[in-house]
Design brief:
The protein has 97 residues and is mainly α. The chain has helices at 2-23, 31-54, 61-76, 81-96. The chain contains 4 helices and no strands. Helix 2 (31-54) runs antiparallel to helix 3 (61-76) and helix 3 packs antiparallel against helix 4. The longest helix is centred in the middle third of the chain and has 24 residues, at 31-54. It is extended. The mean pLDDT is 90. The chain crosses the membrane at residues 6-24, 36-57, 63-96.
Length: 97
C-alpha cells in the first residue's frame, strides 16, 4: 500500500513537470509575452533575496543593504557570480566587525 502511494505521488509530481518540456518547444508566444516570461526569474529572485538582505543582522538592516548594493555594483560590471557573492559576503563581514 505504501509503495503504491509513493509511486502514485511521484507520478502526480513528475507528469506536470515533464509535459511542458515537450510542449513548450512547439508553442509560439507573442513578443510581449516572451519578455514577460523572461522577466519572471529576476522578479522571483528579487522577491526571495530582498527580505534576506534586510534580515542579515536584525538590529542593523543597513549592513544587508550595503552588501546588496555592493553585489549590484559588482554584477553591473559583469563580474562572475562567484566574485559578486564573495564581494558581498566580505562587505557584510567587514561591517559586522
Amino acid at each position: 500500500m505504501i509503495l503504491a502511494m509513493i509511486i502514485g505521488m511521484s507520478l502526480v509530481t513528475m507528469i506536470p513537470r515533464v509535459i511542458p518540456a515537450f510542449v513548450v518547444d512547439k508553442l509560439r508566444f507573442p513578443n510581449w509575452l516572451n519578455r514577460l516570461l523572461n522577466a519572471i526569474p529576476y522578479a522571483a529572485l528579487g522577491a526571495l533575496i530582498f527580505p534576506g538582505i534586510m534580515n542579515v543582522i536584525p538590529d542593523k538592516p543597513y549592513v544587508g543593504l550595503i552588501g546588496g548594493i555592493v553585489a549590484i555594483i559588482l554584477a553591473y560590471f559583469g563580474l562572475h557570480v562567484i566574485y559578486v557573492l564573495v564581494g558581498s559576503i566580505v562587505t557584510v563581514f567587514l561591517f559586522t566587525l
